[in-house]
Fold this protein.
Amino acid sequence: MSKKREKLLQQLEEKFSASGQNLDTHLEGLLHAKYINYWDYIKTDALLSLQQQRTVYPDEMVFIMYHQVNELLFKMMLWELEQVSQKQDLTIDFFSEKLYRVSRYVDVLASSFEVMGDGMSMEQYQKFRHTLTPASGFQSAQYRKIEFASTELINLIDNRFRSTIDRDTPYSHAFEHLYWQAAGKDHKTGEKNALLSNFENKYRKDFIRFMQKYNETNLWTKFKSLPEEQRNSPKLQNAMRHYDHTMNVRWVMAHYHAAGKYLAKPDGTVEEATGGSDWRKYMLPKYQKRIFFPELWSQDELDDWGIGNLETCKIL
């Protein structure tokens, strides 16, 4: 027996003994186990069975798969943010590594809208979109969780109400004043449409638990807990600015322009989104000023949010 194999067996013996298990039993099990293969490990058949069209139009499949890919990327982002949130002895290297990963995922999102913007027949979309009402991409729970995990709650409150919200405000009250609530409420009566009501009925309790969980462990709060020398790291600040701008401006504007292409009418007006929201005012960053890390931007950059190019946000 080679020394390497002998060492491996010793390590396995120690591993299983530590949990009161018998190594021989596990080794015998290997004799009868099937080899792993790609399709079983990735669950390919199950994954490819999740695309169910509601109409006969082929480009609906593009629409479905594109949004499912987005949700997988959202899950990857939450996976990295969770690790930063739970890290006790947070270092700048660990923080930067995870943030660069998240930023790369956001880059993919921001550049991916050509799949829909240039990849669907206008005629087909205008027909199958009506079968989606009142569903909307607005109802992505993972996207909302990414926001909660990225910044302090006050930065997600509708601009009109931020002065009335503080640390002592109940989560349930703050929830009612999140910026995205405006997309599903009648601004005169405050009545919620089906888009928002259905979304809240499904996720409200989960969202409030998530808000509480990340209240003091979100990305921005964790950053502020670092020593000053680490907070001033250009590498880390550039990564955070890149993530902030790409998530809250570049990707949102790509979405905005894709929606405009498919919802614009010949007379210059636009149709409502499938959920019935005023998607133009809801989506445009210059209205809501969605900014995860406001203190990392100059006043001019904040004033130009969603308007200027902000080239300095790129990772150097």
About this structure: Confidence is low (pLDDT under 50) at residues 310-316. The chain has one domain: 55-313. DSSP finds 17 helices and no strands in the chain.
